[in-house]
Design a protein that fits this description.
With 167 residues, the protein is α/β, with parallel strands linked by helices. It contains six helices and six strands. The protein has a six-stranded mixed beta barrel with strand order 1-2-3-4-5-6. α2 runs parallel beside α4. The longest helix is centred in the C-terminal third of the chain and has 18 residues. The chain is globular and about 40 Å long.
Length: 167
Amino acid sequence: NLMPELLPTLKYLTVQSTVGGQLGKVVNCRVLSLLAQPSLVVNHQLKRILAEDDQPVLQLDEGDLRLTPVDFANQVSRQFANALAGVSAAAVARLVVIYAPSWAAECRLPADAQRIRIAHRQIRDVIQILYDRDTASHVQIIYGGFVFEDELATVLWDVNVDGVLIK
């Protein structure tokens, strides 16, 4: 079994984390996609990134299909359980998760604030089930798809949304 090489380290991702437009950066990060690679491969790469002390970023993507909340929760649970197997709570607390649905890319089908809120809550709930509430509260969960300007404030005010990725 040959393991694929890790993606190069990105200098940073820019994130809007407040309604007022404050921008933050996630630095020295490596982005792993749970849709593009099998969970076992992501798990091995995640452990290598953590060992190298880079910032791990897991990108969740439900593909081109808009999954129902139940189907989304099932997919997230399975992906997280496999990708995070054997990773300590302390290491997971360093994690940044980006929910970036392909169907919302490039304004093809923007997500409404309610769908974003539900997805982010489900992601945090899965982390809490796999680890604990404290660990789940430390994981940054960022929305990486298109959002209408008039819904941005609603998205950013949600307790489970830690920011919106600025492309």
